[in-house]
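Possible regression after last week's pipeline update?

I re-ran a chain I had predicted before the update to compare outputs. Posting the input and the new output here so someone can diff against the archived version. Not blocking, just want to make sure nothing changed silently.
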Amino acid sequence: MDIKGSRAVVTGGASGIGLAMVEELLARGARVVVADIDGDRARRVAEQQPGASGARCDVSVHAEVEALCDHAYRELGGVDLVFANAGVNLSGPLLKATPQELDWVFGVNVRGIWSTLSIFANRMIEAGHPGRICVTASEHALGLQHLGAGLYTASKQAVLGLADVFAAELPPSVGLSVFCPGLVATELHLSRRHSPFPPADPADLAFSAAILARGMPASEAARAAIDGVMRGDPLIVSHSTSVTAARKRAEQVEAAFAAQAPWTDHGERYNVNNVIAAVMSENEARKA
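New output (post-update):
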């Protein structure tokens, strides 16, 4: 697939990595629908970018994602690329989080990804044309990077699990990539402005802003994501430091199996795929 002349949708496209994705896609010759919960800002972005159009979409609301898909197909005549990038964060320890905070973060970061993936992938399949979808997870999906972002970390690990299953279910015509960036200079610290919660403490907000300001430029992260999608990479990373947590998780898994459940051929009798195949075979034999 050539980006030039392609038709793309970017959620969370009015700021941060999403905006940088929009700008990079347009620079490479794509036409883009800029979707964001801040519809006015999405439309302002589009007005300044030839080849773009703006739309409001709260990805945590399934019906709004359906409406976005309908809008994109009408506006563009089809969709080749989808970047499910919208995401939020509420800083703080899990021990102090509330059910309402969990519901909101998971509503955007997990349900939003599921809705975007399922709706656009099904439309691509129904239309009979190939496409590629990229979901923005995080380095937090690969292992615990740091404290203070518990709900965000849990939600991004859930995104990786969703993507694993979708990748196995999707036909070869629809490619799927998971983007796991590290620290990027974005407005993630301002997530509360679109939440039902009161503003963050000014000192905490300033602290978070200072950290994010030292992150990778969003344009660099966006290029990494788009290049990875066009290569067909299932997992896209952008920060070399992210590997530390990933290695720690891998080492823990390897050590646990070595100590508690070392490999034996006898253990294959509990392999779920083998059990499913055996049950299906037995059912077919009964029918015959």
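Follow-up from reviewer: compared with the archived run. The chain has a mean pLDDT of 97. Marking as no regression found.
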